[in-house]
């Protein structure tokens, strides 16, 4: 297939019940590509680099909470999170009466947070200002969003994570109690084995996107682990069935799990059922992951899971990719159906993080991921090393064991360059340069795909030493 044809069509890792979602770029793809993307990420100063950014307890680094703002509540109560669930108030107190920030839609457009105080009027703060927890205008580097994507949108999380180390908890009160108890007590009852990472890669064969995912994600990470003294297990091929996955988790009790598969985006005609199984992994026989069976087989306490699957973290409305592909293609219809259920967190991470034995963190995508982000359609270059090698291996599994939020930070660094490419492509389009709209489309898709990878759980959790 020629590069022009590659850049006119998209494969996703979404399974719609009878086929993979794919699509040809629509007549509106140029308009989609030329719409503005997110603002550029931060550039850390040399002085900030000298800090040990893994030490969130350092007041120059800091940790804080982001809650939805609420009218009708006094500023003093907002300042101490009086309206927050009891578990979050306990966590704030245990972390030195950590600062509380609020999401307000009218200022979020500029990447700002609202902060209230008992001794003065409220302030609207940018993350690029004073960092840490010292002073009324300081914003910590670690931020925990507490609330659903309906209350605090995914797009605001995308924006925050370009300037801070961000996680989200979208759990009911019972789930929050269990998660916070485990977090504050260092995951009691854990059986995490950091030397025994488990990788599960479903592969339906070329040209299915799972073949590319296995080669560029699972095998790449397995080789990195295997070459450096770890004892990884890669389950793929005939071992791409759920029973093999459950058995591997039960036997090894890994501290780190990677899964690579299609994510469930069906049935498109039944939004209730679609939401109930959104993003769930499908095995080589297209059997759907069973959360109950998973939790009976595995003690996830304190583990970190990266799931490369469509909608593994959740869904959004409108879709970030609305207008990119033909509305009548399987991909176009899938995007419309998933957007129809509204912004939400996927069931699997909610169940794991809020379970009796809570997972520490879940890393996944909101909406689908695409083949362009795995392999450059122009050059064929593999595009996953920044995520797989630099982030999930070199950073997360380093001897220092950095928090998940800090480990993920390097992955978002490339967004600045991609958005600059997007801006330059728009300028080129306005100057009627050849292939400018193709460049704009690719740069925007790659940037938004990176931003849509999110951390669910507290951003300070880390692998055990």
Notes on the structure:
The strands form five sheets. The protein has a six-stranded mixed beta sheet, sandwiched between helices. Strands 4-3-7-8 form a four-stranded parallel beta sheet. It has a three-stranded mixed beta sheet with strand order 2-1-12. The chain has two domains: 9-37 and 191-457; 53-184, no CATH class. α9 packs parallel to α15 (385-395), α15 (385-395) runs antiparallel to α16 and α16 packs antiparallel against α17. The chain is 35% helix and 16% strand. It has 17 helices and 17 strands. β7 (142-146), α7 (154-160) and β8 (165-169) form a beta-alpha-beta unit. The chain is α/β, with parallel strands linked by helices and 465 residues long.
Topology, element by element:
Elements: H1 3-6, E1 9-15, E2 20-24, H2 29-34, H3 46-49, E3 63-68, H4 75-79, H5 86-94, E4 100-103, H6 105-108, E5 112-115, E6 123-126, E7 142-146, H7 154-160, E8 165-169, H8 173-184, E9 198-201, H9 209-226, E10 233-236, H10 242-252, E11 256-260, E12 263-264, H11 271-276, H12 291-297, E13 304-308, E14 314-315, H13 330-340, E15 344-345, H14 347-353, E16 361-365, H15 385-395, H16 404-430, H17 436-451, E17 453-457
Parallel strand pairs: 1-12, 3-4, 3-7, 7-8, 9-10, 9-11, 11-13, 13-16
Antiparallel strand pairs: 1-2, 5-6, 14-15, 16-17
Helix pairs in contact: 5-8, 9-15, 15-16, 16-17
Number of domains: 2
Q: What gyration radius follows from the Cα positions, in whole Å?
A: 21 Å
- Mean pLDDT equals 92
Specify the helix fraction band.
25-40%
β-sheet strand percentage: 15-25%
